[in-house]
Amino acid sequence: MRHEEYMKSRMAEENSADMVNSPSHYNQSGIECIAAIQAALGPNFKYYLQGNVMKYMWRFDYKGKPIEDLQKAQWYLNTLIEDVVASDES
Hints:
By secondary structure, this protein is mainly alpha-helical. The protein has four helices and two strands; from the N terminus they run H-E-E-H-H-H. Strands 1-2 form a two-stranded antiparallel sheet. A hairpin with a 2-residue loop joins strand 1 (27-28) and strand 2. The protein is globular, with a radius of gyration of 16 Å. The model has no long low-confidence stretch (mean pLDDT 85).
């Protein structure tokens, strides 16, 4: 497959994929990037989540996809809440 064809197929895949909850480019060999980051950071994972909430809130009005960026901020905030609740329960 030529590079141009490959790139067109990737763009079509990304356009049909859920770019907020499960973007395909964050999954390698069945391992989600977010799970690897959580494993590497341990109890400090919450700060990574907090930083991403801030990032997406900061830029949502400038990148051309404000709803998608706000949904990503919401996803990270929901994940942060789940992480804090799980920490409080243990």
